[in-house]
């Protein structure tokens, strides 16, 4: 029977411990190599899902804001046309319609808008003056 305090036994124990540590290290390296790609794929898929969700939310919000902007613009254009029409009716009813004078001037950008162009043309005809498009 060998003595546990014997230097030979202790050196064997130390060698066994070092061998176990080396084996554990090698096993851990192999484990990491095998799991590395799976872990990367899992992380990438989770991140991709979250990015897609955020982009979808941003896209939906942009669509909502764009619809509100278009509705607001059309409401403003409708109001301007109604105001011009009401002004014309009041002026013709009271006999104070303006005739002659300076031409009606509309900006090039506004002339591209059908409603604004029609309102300016109607105003020019009502006042019996030419319609000019400011191209500057």
Detailed description of the structure:
This protein is mainly alpha-helical and 136 residues long. The protein has a domain at 33-80. It is 78% helix and 6% strand. The chain has helices at 7-94, 108-111, 114-127; strands at residues 104-107, 131-134. Strands 1-2 form a two-stranded parallel ribbon. Helix 1 (7-94) runs parallel beside helix 3 (114-127). The longest helix has 88 residues, at 7-94. The model has no long low-confidence stretch (mean pLDDT 81).
Number of strands: 2
For the sheet with most strands, the description reads: 2 strands, parallel
Overall 3D form: rod-shaped
Structural class computed from helices and strand pairing: mainly alpha
Q: pLDDT under 50 segments (min length 5)? A: none
Mean pLDDT: 81
Radius of gyration over C-alpha positions, nearest whole angstrom: 42 Å
- Total helices: the number is 3
SS strand fraction: 5-15%
Oligomeric state of the chains in view: single chain
Helix content: over 70%
Gap between N and C termini: 110 Å
């Amino acid at each position: 029977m060998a003595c546990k305090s014997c230097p030979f036994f202790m050196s064997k124990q130390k060698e066994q411990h070092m061998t176990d540590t080396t084996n554990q290290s090698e096993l851990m390296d192999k484990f990491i190599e095998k799991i590395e790609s799976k872990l990367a794929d899992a992380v990438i898929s989770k991140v991709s899902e979250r990015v897609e969700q955020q982009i979808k939310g941003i896209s939906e919000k942009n669509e909502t804001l764009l619809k509100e902007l278009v509705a607001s613009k059309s409401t403003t254009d409708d109001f301007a046309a109604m105001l011009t029409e009401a002004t014309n009716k009041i002026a013709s009813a009271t006999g104070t319609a303006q005739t002659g004078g300076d031409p009606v001037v509309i900006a090039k950008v506004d002339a591209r808008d059908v409603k604004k162009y029609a309102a300016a043309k109607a105003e020019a005809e009502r006042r019996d003056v030419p319609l000019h498009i400011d191209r500057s």
